[in-house]
Amino acid sequence: MKLSLLIIFTATLFYSCTNNNKKPLSNANELAYNADIINTGALNLGAALTGVIKQGELNAQLKFSNTESKDLEIQEIAINTIDGSHSLPTSAFTPFLLKRGNDTSLTLKFNPYNNYKLYQITGKHGSFKPAYNFSITYKATGSDSTSILSLKATAEKNEYLAYLKKYITPVIGYSFNTTNGFNERQKKYLETLKQIPHPPFAFLSDQEIAVSGFNFRLKNYYQQDTLHAELFIVNHSDFLVKIIPDAFNITASGKSLPGDVKTVSLEKVSGTQQNISMIEKGDRVLIHFKKHIKLNAPGKEHLQLHITKAFMIKGDKALFTEDLELLPASF
């Protein structure tokens, strides 16, 4: 009887997701996905998935039914993209026991990494994918083996194309130029500083800088005539560095132009809050940067990250010997 009621309930709940003659969405701020209902095996599953466009979140409504003769332990619920990105719920989820013959419903939120490379460079998760896969990991009580139930949710093609056309704007991300000999020049400069432990260390990768125990990670992008950047800093060293916010800048021509207006703010993620511009050992700091600027060729222009006067050590010495070149990547 419970199984019959479940089928009637899920058929009613998800009718709009399986009807081939769908009407346009009543909520233009959402993107709906169609998901099948799985009524085979020990664990039956019905799902509804909606993309909340402004927040970039996925809202999932899941209905589970245990048709097994044993209790089932639901261990993990995830959403995967076709290219392999694996995302767990951002809302609270605790593994639970689903008694035999019982059913239950859950509402979960996800913030998937739709484009992992974009996220690494810019910090943005990217536009919704045309399809996602639910992945449910479970096992029968007393069993050592786990099972994975997969369920695909797909957006209607025309609605997905309309979403891309209306909401998606070009994004240009930037990475450090790692081929211009910065590491060697920075090491030689550090050797001249008494405040830096010897032998000094300097290494530049696409998004990170490591300098004798100071680690920097940059995420930045250009979108709709505005540059956005976050520089995350961790001090593992025994020396102090002072941040000069006014000296921190990103430019297209090597210097600020008339009309360039930047906003720079500091956030002390951890550590002493008395002087947030002073980075002591163990401190973690975020520099937030925003600047309205019109780039003539955003996908081709190289930028400059101005840091030589932005990070100072004892004796009013600069931590960096030169500013860094940023190379564009289109998404």
Labels describing this entry:
331 residues; mainly beta; Immunoglobulin-like; ten-stranded antiparallel β-sheet; nine-stranded antiparallel β-sheet; 23 strands; 13% helix; elongated
Describe the structure.
With 331 residues, the protein is mainly beta. The chain folds into 2 domains: 166 residues, Immunoglobulin-like (Sandwich), CATH 2.60.40; 159 residues, Immunoglobulin-like (Sandwich), CATH 2.60.40. 13% of the residues lie in helices and 43% in strands. The protein contains 5 helices and 23 strands. Strands 10, 11, 12, 13, 14, 16, 17, 19, 20 and 23 form a 10-stranded antiparallel beta sheet that branches. The chain is elongated, with a radius of gyration of 26 Å.
Name of the CATH class of the largest domain: Mainly Beta
Parts with pLDDT < 50 across at least 5 consecutive residues: 1-26
Distance from N terminus to C terminus (CA atoms, Å) equals 52 Å
Mind telling me the CATH superfamily name of the largest domain? Answer: Immunoglobulins
Q: What is the helix/strand order?
A: HHEEEEEEEHEEHEHEEEEEEEEEEEEE
Alpha-beta classification: mainly beta
DSSP, total strands: 23
| Count of structural domains | 2
CATH architecture of the largest domain: Sandwich
Our count of helices gives 5
Percent helix: 10-25%
Shape: elongated
Largest sheet: 10 strands, antiparallel
Layout: helices, strands, pairs:
Layout: H1 2-13, H2 15-18, E1 30-35, E2 43-52, E3 57-66, E4 72-80, E5 86-87, E6 96-98, E7 103-110, H3 116-122, E8 131-140, E9 147-155, H4 157-167, E10 172-176, H5 182-190, E11 202-204, E12 208-211, E13 214-223, E14 226-235, E15 241-243, E16 249-251, E17 261-270, E18 278-279, E19 284-292, E20 303-306, E21 311-313, E22 317-318, E23 324-330
Antiparallel strand pairs: 1-2, 1-9, 2-3, 3-7, 4-5, 4-6, 4-8, 8-9, 10-13, 10-23, 11-12, 12-13, 13-14, 14-19, 15-18, 15-21, 16-20, 17-19, 20-23, 21-22
